[in-house]
Design goal:
- This protein is α+β, with helices and mostly antiparallel strands and about 190 residues long.
- It has a single domain, classed as Nucleoside Triphosphate Pyrophosphohydrolase (Alpha-Beta Complex), CATH 3.90.79.10.
- It has four helices and twelve strands.
- The strands form two sheets. Strands 3, 4, 5, 6, 7, 8, 9, 10, 11 and 12 form a ten-stranded mixed beta sheet that branches. A two-stranded parallel sheet has the order 1-2.
- The longest helix is centred in the middle third of the chain and has 13 residues.
- It is globular and about 50 Å long.
Length: about 190
């Protein structure tokens, strides 16, 4: 076993001792088979890249935000897994486009925080996945155009997101069913101070 893949990575231990989460929740994924503790941070430390599995992105369009919908509810942070050799920014641009149709301007992207996900269950069979800890970078970016136009119906190219639409920050805050974790990042970019 190597660090981060069956043995807790020493960089995680150090990082978590220096950081305080702004929100935390425990959820169960994969039809109740994967219990995960998710902690949200609004800091931007150097993270061990080998443990960053995904990139999430809040998308601002004018004064509104993209709200995604899927079978599990609504959320503000479309995104997904990095492809081999892909930068965090490239992942965000690709994933947002695939899931929402919106074209994020790469130069507008900035890091607003990160998620620490701790697998509370047994080690997965896929030994290429980090265990017990994995991380997700959270970015914020601006989009000004969408394939087919702003009001076009869009279905995620992978079929996960069933729709997305623009909402005000207040509606985004009230409609998110993502256990309040994505609202942490909405507040970080919309609240003064």
């Amino acid at each position: 076993m190597r660090l981060g893949f069956g043995i807790r990575h020493s960089a995680i231990t150090t990082l978590l001792a220096q950081q305080t989460p702004v929100a935390r929740n425990t959820v169960t994924w994969l039809n109740g088979t994967l219990p995960v503790r998710i902690s949200a941070y609004t800091t931007t430390p150097e993270l061990p890249a080998e443990l960053v599995t995904s990139v999430r992105c809040l998308v601002r369009v004018g004064g509104e935000f993209v709200l995604c919908e899927n079978a599990e509810g609504c959320h503000l942070v479309p995104g997904g897994r990095r492809q081999s050799g892909e930068s965090y920014r490239d992942t965000a641009v690709r994933e947002v486009h695939e899931e929402t149709g919106w074209l994020v301007r790469p130069g507008s992207l900035r890091t607003v925080g990160w998620l620490h996900l701790e697998n509370l269950g047994t080690r997965p069979r896929d030994e290429s996945l980090p265990y017990p800890d994995f991380l997700q970078i959270v970015l914020c970016g601006v989009a000004t155009e969408r394939d087919g136009g702003a009001d076009t119906q869009w279905t995620d190219t992978d079929g996960w997101e069933t729709g997305s639409r623009l909402v005000s920050p207040a509606e985004a805050r009230s409609r998110s069913s993502n256990d309040m974790l994505d609202v942490v990042y909405l507040d970080a970019i919309t609240q003064p101070g």
